Amino acid sequence: MGKVADKKSRFLNMCLMGLLLVLAVIFAVPLYITVVNIFKPTKMIAASPLSLPLHPTLENIIGVLNSPNVNIYRMYLNSILITVFGTSVCILVSSLAAYYLARVKSRLSGMLYVYFLFGLMVPYVIVYVPLVTMYSRLGLVGNLPSLILIFVSGSISFSVFMYHGFIGGISLELEEAAIIDGAGDGVIFWKIVMPLVRPCTTTVAIFIGLSMWNDFLTPLLIGQVKTITVGIYTAIGPYASDWGSVFAYVMFATLPIVIAYLLAQKEFVSGLAAGAVKG
């Protein structure tokens, strides 16, 4: 019986490894296509998108950097400002809200928590039309701070949900001991609670920062602000597309996210694991 069980276990492990290998290949194909096509002219990309660049060229990258019609540096600046300020404001507001909801047991806090949960159930795209109408009437279209406000409002429900689970798992004895030592609510929150939920902060920052950086429709339709993802759209024409420039824009849009993830990978994985346990 033991040998049969071992064979069955090895067979299941082999099947699992095979499935994971297939999934890895599937997810690696878009990255491969992007990397190889950066260094090929548009005609070669259209003829053979999967082939390796026989004569690598940097014309696509140089053309995007020196384009007279598109200022990629301004696009980068807009994307960085939206991501940094939007993520920072969202983390600040959502962590404070989650701390209140987790520590104050009242009917109001319960209703507010349900309100934030409802925000997770509403598809973001269905609010585009009313938001565009409202922003047009208020004259806020093309305003970077107003666009950041939209991103914060769209991400705060998820952030509150994440922080609420983490803060709820922190022992109250730590805060009670700090109160006995004379610490106020502000000191307890910043000196005790926030360091303990650092994996959650990293996870939330990566998730919402990634969504803000990669968002295409919101800055295009609502804010009408040119970001690095909107730059990809500028290389696609109604009748023809400059695929070399498209892949160059994709590289410029992806590279900062990959670097940020590699730098914060350990915190990100630990935050996901802790969140799965704390629920």
How would you concisely characterize the structure shown here?
The C terminus is likely disordered. The protein is mainly α.
Question: Shape from CA axes?
Answer: globular
* Strand composition percent: under 5%
* CATH class placement of the largest domain: Mainly Alpha
* CATH fold annotation of the largest domain: MetI-like fold
Q: What structural class do helix, strand and pairing data support?
A: mainly alpha
Q: What is the arithmetic mean of pLDDT? A: 82
CA radius of gyration is 24 Å
Order of helices and strands: HHHHHHHHHHHHHH
CATH level-four homologous superfamily name of the largest domain: MetI-like
* Count of DSSP H/I helices: 14
Q: How many individual β-strands? A: 0
Largest sheet: none
CATH-scheme architecture of the largest domain:
Orthogonal Bundle
Question: What does it look like?
Answer:
The chain is an all-alpha fold and 279 residues long. The chain folds into two domains: 60 residues, no CATH class; 217 residues, MetI-like (MetI-like fold), CATH 1.10.3720. Helices cover 79% and strands 0% of the residues. The protein has 14 helices and no strands. The two termini are 38 Å apart.
